[in-house]
Amino acid sequence: MKRQDIEQTDPKKIIAGYWDLRSRSYSKGVTDSRDEEMEIWKRCLAPFITDIGLRKALDVGSGTGFLSSLLDDMGIDVICLDLSRGMLALAREALLQERRDLDLFQGDAEALPFRSSCFDIVVSRHLLWTLPDPVKALAEWMRVLRPGGRLLVIDGNWFDPAVRKRLGRGLSGILANFSKSRNPVPFHRFYDPIGQELPLYSACGPERYLAFFEDAGVKNVTLDRLSEANRFYKSHTSLSYRLANANALFLVTGEKGEQETKS
Ligand SMILES: C[S@@+](CC[C@H](N)C(=O)[O-])C[C@H]1O[C@@H](n2cnc3c(N)ncnc32)[C@H](O)[C@@H]1O
User: Fold this and answer.
1) What is the share, in percent, of the chain residues with pLDDT greater than 90?
2) How far is the CA of 83 from the centre of ligand 1 (A)?
3) Higher local confidence (pLDDT), 240 or 179
4) Regarding predicted confidence, which is higher, 3 or 68?
5) What is the CA(138)–ligand 1 centre distance, in A?
6) In angstroms, what is the span from residue 244 Cα to ligand 1's centroid?
């Protein structure tokens, strides 16, 4: 299936179509040092996970299961949810290979098929930027969190409009044509027509995330610049990847108030 074959104007269907096609190449990752990558993410996330006895997590927009596997290693029960059946199929393959027994759900991050207050922690990585209604999604994630539960959102300023960053992405695009790890799916053919309908697509710096967290009523919000993870990707990825994504990552965390009733 190609972008022009999708007779769709619904952004969610276009997004699901993109990630279905992208799943196989995405599962290969951006570095050859996956074990080290996992260890670094564990170190980055541990301070937000180990302090309040978290047991049950939802990984929303779980993709091929990177965060889910990592949380599983940390002794947390994880449920994975993703819109794309292609991504879920790859996740199932990877989890089976690693002998992990996690539940996978196909569903929408903005309308979760779970009852209220049933998770201790909701995590997502690289998802909010591609959602049509991030505030609705955050409200949903808060709904399924138990009072006092924690929200961990990792994302990146992927489309920073600064001239230097735009130039970096342009150069990266040219270099990517010669790279064996280049994205074989035409990203812009899928995303350019819908970009305007995704509030965090082109302006996705951490400040905007903080504002969205506030609008969704998230408590005790913190921002972490993930310096160790950013350093790792700077030294363990292709030049083309680095030019487009240097220092882009950040983590926003927050909590559901202890007093908040189930809705
Ligand atoms: C960039 S990938 C990130 C995957 C994974 N979290 C990771 O860190 O490797 C974005 C993922 O979000 C999923 N996604 C996009 N829109 C979604 C939605 N509305 N609900 C659930 N998942 C969605 C895509 O299918 C894709 O798997």
Assistant:
1) 70
2) 7
3) 240
4) 68
5) 14
6) 20
Domains, in order of start, for the chain = 3-156+184-227+250-255 (3.40.50.150)
Nearest CA to ligand 1 atom 26: 63
For ligand 1, pick from 106, 112, 127, 152 the residue to mutate: most ligand atoms within 8 Å of CB.
Answer: 127
CB-CB contact of 75 with 46 (8 Å): no
CA of 126 to the centre of ligand 1 (A): 7
pLDDT at 262 (0 to 100): 47
Does the beta carbon of 27 sit less than 6 angstroms from any atom of ligand 1? no
Amino acid (one-letter) located at 255: E
The side-by-side arrangement of strands in the sheet containing 103-106 is 103-106, 77-82, 56-60, 119-125, 145-156, 249-255, 219-224
> 255 pLDDT exceeds 60?
yes
* DSSP collapsed to 3 states, 119-167: EEEEEEECCHHHCCCHHHHHHHHHHHEEEEEEEEEEEECCCCCCHHHHH
Predicted confidence (pLDDT) per residue in 162-189, tens digit: 888 888 787 777 777 777 667 788 898 9
Q: pTM score, two decimals?
A: 0.92
User: Ligand 1, closest atom to CA 61?
Assistant: 22
Atom of ligand 1 nearest to the CA of 16: 25
Mean pLDDT of 23-39: 91
